Fold this protein.
Amino acid sequence: MYSILSGTEVSKAILFKAKNDLAKFDKKPKLVIVYVGNDPASEVYVGMKIKKAQEIGMDAELKKLPDNTNQEDLLTLVNALNKDSSVTGFIVQLPLPKHIDTAKIIGAIDPAKDVDGFTPTNIGKLFLGISEESILLSATPAGVIKMLEHYKVDFKGKHAVVVGRSNIVGKPVASMLLNRNATVTICHSGTKNLADHTKTADILIVAVGKPKLITADLVKKGAYVIDVGTSKVNDKLYGDVDFENVIKKAHCSPVPKGVGPMTVAMLLSNVVKAKMHQNPSSI
Ligand SMILES: NC(=O)c1ccc[n+]([C@@H]2O[C@H](COP(=O)([O-])OP(=O)(O)OC[C@H]3O[C@@H](n4cnc5c(N)ncnc54)[C@H](OP(=O)(O)O)[C@@H]3O)[C@@H](O)[C@H]2O)c1
């Protein structure tokens, strides 16, 4: 009765479109991924992004740097990628090692090449309500919205509750929901009585990183629930939502096969978008 909101399915359609768009360019767009250190989770994500990019015919290059890379060297690389006309877009995979100032590195990325949509310019434009078409949007929040749109969710006047207020998920997704005229509540670790908020949500987005934080009793019947959370426990991946029980009363995305594949698909769509913005006559 309630739908499994499948990121795997929706991402196929997005990748199909990106592949078709790619075929129209005279010169293929190129994605570069800068990856510093040896975080096992990042290793998997980076591998997936490169693999999917190559599958759809995009040029993709991994620049892997050692854990002890210093901030100046990383900034030099970011500046070189900004200037390199063969590079359409690039990301610096997060998290970075602790000795590096993440904000400084992200802030140095040319917003026109910021295919993760993390720079203050792109985030700021989103918060200002500037047309989303003209912005490189953060991939995960954009994927969440695309999933809901695919399942024909009507946002206008709906109560959307976002649990988590990070700069890369919670805040941008809340902004995108506001842009679609939802009434938005943002919850965080200081929120009192979380259930009082989540139980009234027509749309519930959870991005915390605590397995099974959202149990069925915290969810309104018939709601649309998107689980962004990913936590590895004994080598098994868990979301923030108790999917097995929540799916009995609400539409819900699973983990894995939910938001993860959407993030990759939206990143690659952003590379195509960046290419179009940089050179509209190339298509
Ligand atoms: N699938 C994907 O592609 C993808 C992409 C990005 C992230 N993720 C996953 O999504 C999760 C969130 O990522 P993130 O980068 O946004 O994490 P983050 O920066 O650690 O933020 C977590 C947020 O959850 C809030 N929080 C913590 N405990 C809470 C509680 N008991 N009740 C309500 N809110 C609580 C925190 O509140 P405070 O602000 O008060 O500390 C914070 O705002 C992680 O599991 C991450 O791995 C998945």
